[in-house]
Amino acid sequence: MVSLALLLGCGDAGPPWSVVGRPSATTPRSIPLALDQLSRHARAGSFEIESGEPVSQLRFSIGVRGGDRATGPARFAVAAQRGEGWETVFEEVLRPGPRAWHDRVVDLPEGLRGASRFRFESSLEGADPALLLEAYFGSPVLLARREDTRPNVVFLLLDTLGASYLGHFGEFAGVSPSIDAFLADAYSFRRAYSQYGATLTSTTSLLTGLYPVHHGNYGGRASLMTRIDSLVEEFAATGYFTAAITEGGFVSSGWGTSAGFDWYDNGPPQQSTTAGFAPRTFPEAKRWLREHALDNRFFLVVHSYEVHAPYLPRTQAARAMIERVSARDTRPLPGRWQTNAMRSHNAGRGKISPQDLQRMKGHHLATVHELDEFVGGFLDELAALGLEDETLVVLLADHGDQFGERGKVGHGESLHNRVLHVPLGFRWPGRIEPGESPAPVQLVDVMPTVLELIGEPVPAGLDGRSLAPWILREPEPPAPRAAFSELRGPNSECERLDLDRHCRLYRYSVQTERFKFVSSEVPPGEVLYDLDVDPAELQDVAAEHPEELARHRALLKAYLADGRVDEADAGEEQALDPTTRGRLQALGYIQ
């Protein structure tokens, strides 16, 4: 891992640093480039960046693609325009070495503070064109101190953390004390739903504010994120420095989820049978806060697979939670057995016994308890650094897991609410009063909500809408609306139905304040659940409520009115780098 050398918070006290300049579309086109698992928007050769405001600081990375194969040094220089000429403010030579980004900060000397135009030049001596070697600047930005009353924004994206496994929702008291305390101190939504029960598609909806049926990023094919506007770019365009610390897999930059981020950490490079890396991710996130956040306007996403299968709790305190649901059998579960058994169970080739389902559920609960401690430590660090009151923290998950409900295990194989129901809380001390709403809401609503809360305009054309009227307790908030979710092509379900592995089932759910409607094209069918009396979704009440069946059919028809987007199916198979392939193997997606 490259040491991040930027030390913010040093020097003159004053207003926070804000980004006032990035490369324009007329500069050489950038490419997303990951070196040593750190991804940057990379530009080579010579280009200029201009700011509409006086600049005091530059921030960028330098690196060489295939640096370990280079035979000559890489040279980097940055010059500021002074009058009719240019004055060099940065020079460095990198000798051949391992692939890595080296992060740099340049505080402009007094005589050049106020410059607004900068020239970046990079070259690599003795490079063989056939080797595709090149010296790159990564994510260059221009910064200045300016008054800014907007908050920092942090997303805690806790992969596979279904709401039902948190004490806050009443089923498992004491399992998640830190997350429960956060949700109690935040404005939370008791009925928040994911748009898709798999990470890539759900995260794309989160970051774009678009339903899957409109962005088409269902995974497995060439990434669509480069053709979709990520709302992270809205933060970047208004002066936020944008960063993400992730655990790779289906949020690796190669899938396009790094769009709009200045710095993107793909997680540890090593392959492992462990699903999550919270013991690495959260200390890294705390270090990022200490080194980069003290007087900077930032948007930070912290992502962890800690509670994703295979469930392998590390600590004794976490393992003690297994007894909550599996007191008769607390033996460890082999990681590879878990993922193979889940696949076999969902495909109908071999059912997991009720006893082993309880063991798996208990081990999942144990990982939730373990994750909770890391989340609490991160929130404590935010407070200890004095950042708590000026930071909007959003805690959420992309989806959950199920353990035998409606015959399925894990996620991505059904539209059951054990998978779709996720936690969602917004905390900004002094600005958002604690509270909660029972209205059905969706992950596509998150980005519009945050943009409105920080005082930025919400782009037109989004499927999501702002939840700020509820959070800020406006006298007459809009009426709740339906929440939509999809299931396109679950591999094991396709196998169970004896269909091709790329089959498309086209299943949808529509959830309103009381009812949930599920429609399937393959095999054809539909059901209606009354969630008030049947939260487990066991009894079809379509015959008893024909008017509700008709209303929900109409809602789904409107949802599909623009037509289904299938661009993801037209591209080539996604080419996976060895690290991403290893992570997906550890997560059970690849044999």
Fraction of residues in β-strands: 25-35%
Category from helices, strands and their pairing: alpha+beta
Helical run tally: 15
CATH architecture of the largest domain: 3-Layer(aba) Sandwich
Principal-axis shape: globular
Low-pLDDT residue spans? 1-12, 567-572
> Sheet with the most strands?
15 strands, mixed
What name is given to the CATH topology of the largest domain?
Alkaline Phosphatase, subunit A
What is the CATH superfamily classification of the largest domain?
A: Alkaline Phosphatase, subunit A
What would you report as the Rg, rounded to the nearest angstrom?
Answer: 24 Å
Helix content: 10-25%
Distance between the termini: 28 Å
Count of domain modules: 3
Whole-number mean pLDDT: 90
- The count of DSSP E runs of length 2 or more, i.e. the number of strands, is 25
**Name of the CATH first level of the largest domain:** Alpha Beta
Can you tell me about this structure?
- By secondary structure, the chain is α+β, with helices and mostly antiparallel strands.
- It is built from 15 helices and 25 strands.
- The chain has helices spanning 177-185, 199-208, 212-215, 232-237, 278-292, 316-319, 323-326, 335-347, 354-384, 417-420, 446-453, 468-471, 491-496, 546-559, 578-586; strands at residues 17-21, 31-35, 38-44, 46-50, 57-65, 74-82, 85-94, 102-107, 117-124, 134-145, 152-158, 187-193, 241-245, 263-265, 298-304, 391-396, 402-403, 409-410, 421-422, 424-427, 435-442, 483-487, 507-511, 515-521, 524-530.
- The strands form four sheets. The protein has a 15-stranded mixed β-sheet that branches.
- α5 packs parallel to α9 (354-384).
